[in-house]
Amino acid sequence: MAQNGWSAPPKPSPVPPTAAAATSSSKAASGWGQSPAAPGTWAAAPPTTPIAGTTPTVVPSGWGPPGVTSSSWNGKPASTVPASAPVQNNGARMPSPTRPGVQRPADAEVTALASKVDGLSTEETEVEDLVIAKKADNLVESAQDVEVTLADLQADADAPLYSGISTFEALHLHPDLLKGIYGMGFQRPSKIQERALPLLLANPPKNMIGQSQSGTGKTAAFVLTMLSRITYTDPRPQVVCLAPARELARQIMDVVKEMGKYTPVTTCFAIKDAFKRGQKLEGQVIVGTPGTVMTAMKNRDIDLSQVKLFVMDEADNMLDQQGLGDQSIRVKKGIPPKAQIVLFSATFPPAVRDYAATFAPDANMISLRREELSVEGIKQFYMDCANEQHKQEVLCAIYGLLTIGQSIIFCRKRNVADQLGAALTRDGHECLVLHAGLDPDERDKAIDDFRDGRCKVLITTNVIARGIDILQVNLVVNYDIPLDSQNRPDPETYLHRIGRTGRFGRTGVSINFCHDQQSYNEMKAIETHFGRPIVRVPTSSYPEIEKILKAAVKNLPPK
Ligand SMILES: Nc1ncnc2c1ncn2[C@@H]1O[C@H](COP(=O)(O)OP(=O)(O)OP(=O)(O)O)[C@@H](O)[C@H]1O
What we know:
Radius of gyration: 23 Å
Bound molecules: adenosine-5'-triphosphate
Strand order of the largest sheet: 5-6-4-7-8-3-9
Domain Helicase ATP-binding: 199-366
Shape: globular
Distance between the termini: 35 Å
Number of helices: 17
EC number: 3.6.4.13
Helix content: 25-40%
InterPro entries: DEAD/DEAH_box_helicase_dom (IPR011545), Helicase_ATP-bd (IPR014001), Helicase_C-like (IPR001650), P-loop_NTPase (IPR027417), RNA-helicase_DEAD-box_CS (IPR000629), RNA_helicase_DEAD_Q_motif (IPR014014)
Pfam family, one: DEAD
Number of strands: 16
């Protein structure tokens, strides 16, 4: 087997910031003039994260249309409102109640969860519809057979999943949203949910720039805000949510529908091929990608005049002037200037953060220090291969390992992903390839097949490096070390890629492949950036590789 010597520690090259240039943007004032509600209700859950700006003073009491009580939609009692029939257009995923790794709660659990929603019986929570993702396999066992549960992790004051409040009720959400949350198996808010939601829901609305580690529940924080801000008697678009890729937009839409299933929300996709030119985008919540929303605006296929909330997930990526920044600015220009702007990401490199502050002026900020960015449960390895060909050989050799759970293999270029897919297939191994060169329906099929566990290995590019949440992914391979548009090591993309595993307290493994001095230096630069060790796995013996990595994949303790 080929030997190599990239591990002789050379001096790591410094990682320059992958910054977006700061440019000016149209200013949006925060607050769009809702009347304030009773102060003081949030007192039980004061934010403790370093937050710039004021603390919230106001409760989102009447978050339905004016005159609707907090337990009813459009005058109907909460429990008699039918599950939403959101506008369905192309790109939608069929619900898959039997996804691997997702368990239904036992009856007793459902009773306990349902009883948390004041005044609702178990029956009213539609037990049959409850899908729970409470405890995945890799959350529970450490090498010492000590069971570590989500409850343990959420009780650890230092963990990103911890919150000072023990229930979602303390966040004063609408009962029908509480039903949606508990139906998804959530029991207790994570730190970002506890801290962001009071700020996001306060009136008058204030902009937000929110940061929290990957897999810690940012989506629920902004989706609950979206569903809380809608005036349900008005069918026009009121919320626009943008994501950098169609796969992520589709996933966010799944969460909107699942969390909002007891509300009468209507939704609409703004992703490529989901609608025809001339077809109006109708729905209270629009979720899409910036290019498609821009096109719909240009063609006057979307009425943005009533939009009061503009959310950008993976905001640092969406504001990056090398990428989607231009399109995001144009969408923002079509939205009423008083709309609340909400930006979320796990990473905000300094230059982007400065720019974000002009994009979302006077925003409340929840930030992380660099040393807090890494997800504790993800064990990081590297393998130093002799050359490109050897990388491929090693990958084929460890294929069995890739299928212990599910794994994602990231490549820098589409053609490399295609070649690798072909090589694994030639070797008799099943895998899927997904990149932006595929047609939209091919992309949808690939991610759905992977999400539903029909195939266990996904080879891809950075197109799904961010946001994709598939709990049973326990291994991420960086077949190529991620580089930015100027070919410098890209720590942010690295963090997002490896964050596809280790979701919400689960454990995971990442393996980086190096094949020459340069790729070794790039990997080392990323290691230095985060100050977390990336441990060498020798490539000289396949049994040895299997032994080390299998032990890591199977037995990692959660912390
Ligand atoms: N309070 C909660 N209790 C239990 N599970 C939760 C809770 N909040 C979120 N989750 C689950 O945790 C997982 C990760 O959440 P989410 O995708 O929102 O992470 P994220 O912070 O947006 O990550 P990324 O930065 O990678 O986009 C999801 O499967 C979600 O359903």
